[in-house]
Amino acid sequence: MSEIAISVERLSKLYRIGLKDQIQETLVGTVVDFVRSPAKNFRRLKKLTNISPDDAEAKDVIWALRDVSLNVMQGEVLGLIGPNGAGKSTLLKILAGITEPTSGRAEVRGRVASLLEVGTGFHPDLTGRENVYLNGTILGMTKGEIDHKFDEIVAFSEVEKFIDTPVKRYSSGMTVRLAFAVAAHLEPEILLVDEVLAVGDFRFQRKCAGKMGDVAGSGRTVLFVSHNMAAIGSLCDRGVLLGEGAVLTHGRIDDVVSRYISEGLSGSEFQEETTDELACIVGGRIVGSDQIRFGDFLTFDLDIVAREKLSASLMWRLQDAFGAPVAVGSPHLQLGKYQEVRPGKNRFCVKLGPLPLFEGAYSLSFDLNHAGTQHLHRLESRLRFTVLACDPAGIGAVLPSRWRAGSIVIPFEIEAVPK
Description:
With 419 residues, the chain is an alpha/beta fold. It has two domains: 65-262, P-loop containing nucleotide triphosphate hydrolases (Rossmann fold); 269-416, abc- transporter (atp binding component) like domain (Coagulation Factor XIII, Chain A, domain 1). It is built from nine helices and 19 strands. The strands form four sheets. Strands 5-6-7-3-8-9 form a six-stranded mixed sheet, with helices on both faces. A hairpin with a 7-residue loop joins strand 10 (269-271) and strand 11 (279-287). Helix 3 (128-138) crosses helix 4 (143-157), helix 3 crosses helix 5 and helix 4 crosses helix 5 (172-184). The longest helix is centred in the first third of the chain and has 23 residues, at 27-49. It is globular, with a radius of gyration of 24 Å. The termini are far apart. 35% of the residues are buried. Residues 331-338 and 391-407 have low confidence and may be disordered.
């Protein structure tokens, strides 16, 4: 009988968030606030580090996890799925020892390694070779282990030619490939994985998925977080669905994925944090209904924040309910062809269609590039929509022959939305 590798009992994590300050409308009030500000700031700082379950109903706190319990057996590959903000990454950080829970208990039995943020610990002024040793040490590998695996790591990353070049001269794609290669060659008893398959181009993503399949089949215990349902379904035995910090369901991975899809938990809009790149996608939303029929159009807005004026290309990927690719938008279509991306926040309206899609759930992923070459930002499965059941008889007769043959080519238009 298998032993328990990870035991989580009634685990909760509470974070304190900021509240908007009250602005005084009188001179006296402003002066009083100024005098009191040192004491007020001290109390705020103290509150950040002193959070207890008694604060549960306060306006300035949020439950990232609430009363989560689960067991993971040795050698099991468990998939954690759920919408953004469900608590998946928080749970992995607690198991990795990065953060402490507010209440409850988490016990991990065995040597743990985590792939939570690919590239953490890379120093831009060091060469690729030096960063392999630095990053490997941060992730828990000994120098002997890195020496033994060094050639294999470099070959997997495909940056052999530049391994003695400072990382600051790498493209973003080269950096994440090398970072993933280091992390993927760990040999712990328990591996915690958070969205590491969304690195590099499509070919390298398939290579990453193959490597993760080798890890999952090696008998190690794996907790795997991803929005890619195809990867979750192929790698995992069981699944846990999280929503708003709580366990919604658990069991066979097919059953858990089906509930996730049927309830539309990933939503038809999203918000993202701003990154350090020249430009990034910070939000998006489907315009109109997220339920369409065969042959309909789908319209959605994307918000892009840029640090400077540039010409960016947007590539979108359409996937089915299990993450399998259905269609890809041309990476050569330049947003700058319609309007250059300007410093600050830009909004673009994208119209796809008509869509030759049959009944089911679908998702859209996005890649943003600078001038068609430099990769800036990637988002996986951020917009989801449903194609309703319908009888397409007669519709297919008026669609282009390439669709009826099964080779999907979907026209799309992009235009800037005036401020």
